[in-house]
Amino acid sequence: MSRLAIVTASRSADFVAAVDDLTAYLGSCGLPPATMRDADAILVWADEVLPDDLVADLLARAADGVAVLLAGPTLAANADRPALADAAGVMAGGPTPRHEIRLRPNPPAGDVVITDRWLELDKTLDDVEVLATAMTGLVSHAVLTWRPATRVGLLTTGTEPATMRHPAVRRLVHRWIRHATGLADGPDVRVGILGYGAIGHEHSAAIAAVEGLVLAGVCDKSPERVAVARTLAPDLTAYADGDALLASPDVDLVVVSTPPNTHAEWALRAIAAGKHVVVEKPFCLTTAEADEMIGAASSAGRLLTVYQNRRWDADYLTVKRLVRSGAIGEVFHYESFVGGYGHPCNFWHSDEEVSGGAVYDWGSHFLDWILDLLPQPVLSVTAAAHKRRWYDVTNADHSRVTIAFADGAEAEFVHSDLAAAMKPKWYVLGTEGAIVGHWRHERVVSRSAIGTLVEDPLAASESPARITLHAPDGSVTDVAVAPAPPVPFHRELADFLRSGAPMSVTATGSRRNISVMEAATLSARDGGRPVVPL
């Protein structure tokens, strides 16, 4: 464990607050705060000139073997102190204009895309390790460095509070500190997948893309599915049954990808076998099951989390960014919708006894979004469910969930297979504006075997929504939807298990979603009476 001191100098309250947020994040990564005298690493993030005595003290601490890391505008703000650049082993150029920056970590770990400015480095000495780069024109520049000989490193971007709060930048800073202080990552995490359906292949591809994760085993009744898994991990072990997978000493973590009504049973058995556990959504069907799973994982010291993959959907991240930035003021009314007019799928998703019902299907995502955006306490839940057309399946044809929050805010989610007219994906009202998410109706165009045109309608739910921002004066702005980050859940999974970085999705957060869905189910069965979630 390394002790971390953070030094900042700024007249901007938002800048200082962002540094404080970063400090809290790094503390949650297992880097406890310390004074400069007691620290193993000192992170300096300042946009003002540092006092001469502080600069001298920083260089003295580096000479004593403490890692000194100069981040954001620190070097640019102290350009008249060449000793800092000399110690870092660089010759600084000029700052770039504010623009979209693509940071490329070394070794590769997925590009980090931010909008900021950075200080170009005209030269780096041969003994400087380049840990991330960015391009200006056709020239690659060092953006993140470490010089072991002098114990001084640089991050030349991070001039804006939004950059310091960017999840991928925070993870990059965490890894930078660990590298500078000699903290090694834990061993590769060997993953076993219990049930290899369509989502299993998504897990497998993500595992293959993330350093530190290895697909070691798959358990599925279908030899064809196991064969598909081997296309990405030829050396995996196929297990005849779930118990054999759980008993294997070659598996550290189990992905429970069985039908929802078995999630709790298999997760508890995996925890008892000493495994970390990722559960497919929904987490389970009742809060009692959630509490038992969380308690078991806590007692065993094992990770328990839920694959809430749509937390990183590009359009949702855009809505979240707008809400978090205060673009529409305080959110007090939120509506969301998914569906259309058509027969539900003929699989366990449409069997209420297995899936938990329609609310648990898309609600695992849409209600999770609501509760992620609105963290305030839930006062009550009301719901309605209609069975009017598709009598060959047991899920409701149309369902509505309304959440009342303790501060007076309200949110509604509608899932319908009887919606001949679709509502917007999102309709969010704030005290200073509104956000609307518009469904897109796209077609995948290809050729048939004989060369004729083939058009395959893509379900609206599989295309990112178009996001518009509405101002009180009536003006409407189309908001750019940035691409989703690559395999973010699995990167967080590897970082948590190998280096202690926290995960965005927690079991307690997923329990909150289950409590709302369970309350909605009870309310719908009782004529829509308000139910207080457990």
Please provide a written account of the structure:
The protein is of the alpha/beta class and 534 residues long. It has 3 domains: 4-181, Rossmann fold (3-Layer(aba) Sandwich); 189-310, Rossmann fold; 311-484, 2-Layer Sandwich (Dihydrodipicolinate Reductase, domain 2). Helix content is 32%, strand content 28%. The strands form 5 sheets. It has an 8-stranded mixed β-sheet with strand order 1-2-3-10-9-8-5-6, with helices on both faces. Strands 18-19-20-17-21-22-25-26 form an 8-stranded mixed β-sheet. β19 (398-405) and β20 form a beta hairpin. α10 packs parallel to α11 and α11 (287-300) packs antiparallel against α17 (507-525). The chain is globular and about 75 Å long. The protein starts with a strand and ends in a 9-residue tail after the last helix. The mean pLDDT is 94.
Count of helix runs: 17
Distance N terminus to C terminus?
Answer: 38 Å
Give the assembly state of these chains. Answer: single chain
Can you give the mean pLDDT? Answer: 94
Predict the CATH topology of the largest domain: Rossmann fold
Low-confidence spans: pLDDT under 50, at least 5 residues?
none
Main sheet characteristics: 8 strands, mixed
Q: How many whole angstroms does the radius of gyration measure?
A: 25 Å
**Helical percentage:** 25-40%
Q: What CATH architecture label of the largest domain applies?
A: 3-Layer(aba) Sandwich
What would you call the structural class? alpha/beta
CATH class of the largest domain: Alpha Beta
**What is the beta-strand fraction?**
25-35%
Quick one: CATH superfamily of the largest domain?
A: Class I glutamine amidotransferase (GATase) domain
Major β-sheet strand ordering? 1-2-3-10-9-8-5-6
Cα shape: globular
Strand tally: 26
Q: Number of folding domains? A: 3
